[in-house]
Amino acid sequence: MRMLVLFTVVVAAAAQNDKPKPHREQFRVIYEWQTIDFEWETPEDRETYLNETKYIPQNVLISGINYYEDKLFLTLPRMLTGVPATLATIPTNQNDTTAPKLKPFPSWSDNKVGDCAALQFVQNIEIDRYGVMWILDNGRIGTLTHRPDPKCPPSIVLIDLKSDKYEMERIPLPLDIINPNTTYLNDLVVDNRDGDYAYITDNSAVDPGIIVFRRSDKKIWKLRDSKSMSSTTEAAIFRINGTTVNLPVNIDGIALGPQFLTEDNQVDRTVYYCPLASIHLYAINASILRNESLAEAGDGSLRPYVVDLGMKASQTDGMKMDSTGTLFYGLITNSTIAEWNSTAADFSVGQRTIARDPNYIQWVDRFTFDDRGNIYVVINRLFNFVKNQVSTSDVNYRILRSTTGLKSYVHGEDLIPPSGHHDAAATQTVAASLILLAIAHILV
Ligand SMILES: *[C@@H]1O[C@H](CO)[C@@H](O)[C@H](O)[C@H]1NC(C)=O
Ligand SMILES: *[C@@H]1O[C@H](CO)[C@@H](O)[C@H](O)[C@H]1NC(C)=O
Ligand SMILES: *[C@@H]1O[C@H](CO)[C@@H](O)[C@H](O)[C@H]1NC(C)=O
Ligand SMILES: *[C@@H]1O[C@H](CO)[C@@H](O)[C@H](O)[C@H]1NC(C)=O
Ligand SMILES: *[C@@H]1O[C@H](CO)[C@@H](O)[C@H](O)[C@H]1NC(C)=O
Ligand SMILES: *[C@@H]1O[C@H](CO)[C@@H](O)[C@H](O)[C@H]1NC(C)=O
Ligand SMILES: *[C@@H]1O[C@H](CO)[C@@H](O)[C@H](O)[C@H]1NC(C)=O
Ligand SMILES: *[C@@H]1O[C@H](CO)[C@@H](O)[C@H](O)[C@H]1NC(C)=O
């Protein structure tokens, strides 16, 4: 069955009339599923997995999405039992929109439950400008069951997609900073400059924060600001498609703005984030998150640097920024996909609805861009999943696509500070390496 659905596009007319708008196409359904099925190695495997309840179709939910070279990567967090793989791919283009089968990535064995060399619980991934996939593996499975099971240490897993070996480099997170029983590595943005950083939202119910991971020396630290990173009681209970949910979920969506030059010619960028149970959007400069000493300073140390950008019409799960500073995000209770051009107007007046449909836009989860100007979004009716009321005779998961002509923030422009200025941080690093060299010399 081939089905393409057009949505009503409701664009606020105000302040947009005389400026040329980039060509925009409406969102269409490119894929939809009632339940998720896989490309099995043999037909018997499927039967065995079903028999042994290692595959329970209604327990498999699509959450995150990413793109690389004509493949869409989908994440399947193991919130319940019976999820045979936690990361998988489908082709970007296929004529049939109905329920393509997912292919575990990198392989079936790399998704084996209980094998700590394999992926256990992947909520989100990012693919950076060099084709490196950054995977958040919580290690803990069954997060929505009565007995969440921390099978393996929470880890960041890197895969170089340019090599077809798809070897996994696993970096377990230090247990003195990350509690494997409570951490919830939710989403991340990657900042490919001066050592490659990931800024990760940890929506732990007891200790929410932003985890910073620097790839060059594999160092991590965690920063907290309870005011902007915690759920608010007013926003925890909400209603969508006739279902009321109570989800006091902490810091969740995260996005990264384009590089800018500060007054003293340093490169910086804005990090945007929001708790799920909140209607505020917050911002902080990346240079602040990169300052490790603020992690030691404890709660409250970030407070002076956090900016409340204002309110949205509703709660938001995932968001994504393009390379020039336009943010895409969902408004859950309004069945809406919205955008904000951060270079054109303040958040409080610059938000636009780009698609609204109560039947097709039921819980906007994550977004991705491809390399030809398309944006994709996962719609997954998460409210039914968390309430254990998924009906396998309904369409539960959809991927929508629109052409915007935009590309992901990871491909944004690199700014080079004007010459003649000394980069203080770089000078410090050089000085530090000189000291190390001197020590090395003494040791020799
Ligand atoms: C699955 O269970 C059915 C019914 O118990 C049985 O007939 C079948 O042989 C089993 N299949 C496998 C692959 O174990
Ligand atoms: C989709 O259909 C078109 C026209 O029928 C055909 O040319 C194309 O090869 C098909 N693509 C795939 C991926 O099957
Ligand atoms: C995690 O939970 C297990 C089992 O309850 C406990 O033994 C362990 O000490 C906990 N770890 C931490 C870091 O709290
Ligand atoms: C980031 O830093 C610049 C100055 O370098 C400042 O103008 C801006 O307000 C800061 N942004 C946030 C979100 O604090
Ligand atoms: C990091 O934060 C500390 C504590 O606020 C401050 O003293 C220091 O100057 C900051 N470092 C940088 C490089 O901004
Ligand atoms: C969005 O949803 C909220 C809560 O359901 C409602 O109060 C608000 O009026 C809606 N906004 C729009 C623009 O539809
Ligand atoms: C954002 O606003 C800037 C300045 O008005 C404009 O040049 C740019 O095209 C806008 N971007 C999008 C994606 O609409
Ligand atoms: C919920 O969504 C389904 C599927 O789109 C629709 O048929 C139904 O009418 C909706 N129910 C409510 C109460 O909005």
UniProtKB/TrEMBL annotation:
GO terms for cellular component: extracellular region. PANTHER family: PROTEIN YELLOW-LIKE PROTEIN, PROTEIN YELLOW-RELATED. SUPFAM superfamilies: Calcium-dependent phosphotriesterase. InterPro entries: 6-blade_b-propeller_TolB-like, MRJP/yellow-related. It holds the Pfam family MRJP. Residues 1-15 form the signal peptide. It comes from Leptidea sinapis. Keywords: Secreted, Signal. This is Bee-milk protein. Belongs to the major royal jelly protein family. The keyword Lipid biosynthesis does not apply. The keyword Signal applies. Its main location: secreted. It is found in: Secreted.
